[in-house]
Structure to design on (281 residues):
């Protein structure tokens, strides 16, 4: 285990065999989406149990659709709450976005208007979520490729509004901050520092693809870019010892060691921020 912060990896079915073939010490936890495993039986339920026997599980949702104009899906919320309790997750998170409307789920993380009215509507839904979860709830900042005409707040100010109004926590995705800063011509470090970092309960780091000279796409399908690592180091200086997760959803390397090297890079950064002489509380 890292002497500084817990370091984890997103559990994907493509990584199952490699994870079980490695030493348990390669990660401190795994993260997975309830939507991918709730209600699953048979071989994959047994595989999930093997993972749970080795590592703590943290849950991260995909379909709460907090920014949708639709009411909160109560059936989905109950399913997620039951799964979170069953796997013993210390907290749960989902994205600050919409993933559908009018009863149609689009399997996308769509942007929402960044203004105070939208912040209040989303905060009201988050309060409903928190009333049904037995653990803290966090929202994740998402990547974006266009600005909506109804925006009156910057992304950092909008996230701060939602966190404050809902009294919830933040899952800080440093890759998404980098992607958005690049796409909209902003300074990523300056943007990072404007987020409510003291509310951070966990950090995500991942890779992106460059579609053109002025567009990055958050794909979780490549190695973490060199420009993103400094954001992780800066973030940890403000958040304290929160868990850090490496995400890879596609483009899995043939050599699992490549992912292990990235995990070691996270540990090295955490070690610089929190030297071993500074004992963890």
């Amino acid at each position: 285990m890292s002497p500084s912060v817990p370091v984890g990896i997103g559990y994907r079915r493509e990584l199952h065999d490699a994870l079980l073939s490695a030493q348990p010490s390669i990660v401190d936890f795994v993260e997975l989406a309830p939507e991918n495993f709730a209600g699953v039986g048979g071989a994959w339920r047994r595989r999930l149990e093997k993972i749970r026997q080795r590592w703590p599980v943290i849950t991260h949702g995909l379909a709460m659709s907090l920014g949708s104009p639709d009411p909160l899906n109560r059936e989905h919320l109950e399913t997620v709450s039951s799964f979170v309790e069953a796997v013993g997750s210390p907290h749960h998170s989902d994205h600050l976005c919409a993933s559908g409307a009018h009863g149609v789920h689009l399997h996308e993380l769509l942007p929402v208007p960044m203004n105070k009215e939208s912040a209040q509507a989303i905060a009201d839904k988050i309060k409903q979520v928190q009333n049904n979860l037995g653990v803290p709830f966090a929202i994740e900042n998402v990547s974006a490729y266009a600005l909506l005409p109804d925006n009156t707040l910057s992304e950092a100010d909008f996230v701060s509004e939602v966190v404050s109004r809902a009294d919830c926590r933040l899952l800080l995705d440093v890759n998404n901050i980098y992607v958005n800063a690049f796409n909209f011509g902003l300074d990523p470090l300056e943007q990072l520092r404007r987020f409510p970092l003291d509310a951070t309960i966990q950090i995500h780091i991942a890779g992106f693809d460059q579609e053109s000279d002025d567009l990055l796409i958050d794909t979780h399908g490549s190695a973490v870019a060199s420009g993103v690592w400094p954001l992780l180091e800066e973030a940890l200086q403000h958040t304290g010892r929160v868990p850090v997760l490496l995400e890879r959803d596609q483009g899995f390397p043939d050599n699992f060691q490549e992912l292990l090297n990235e995990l070691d890079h996270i540990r090295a950064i955490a070690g610089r921020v929190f030297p071993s002489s500074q004992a963890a509380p």
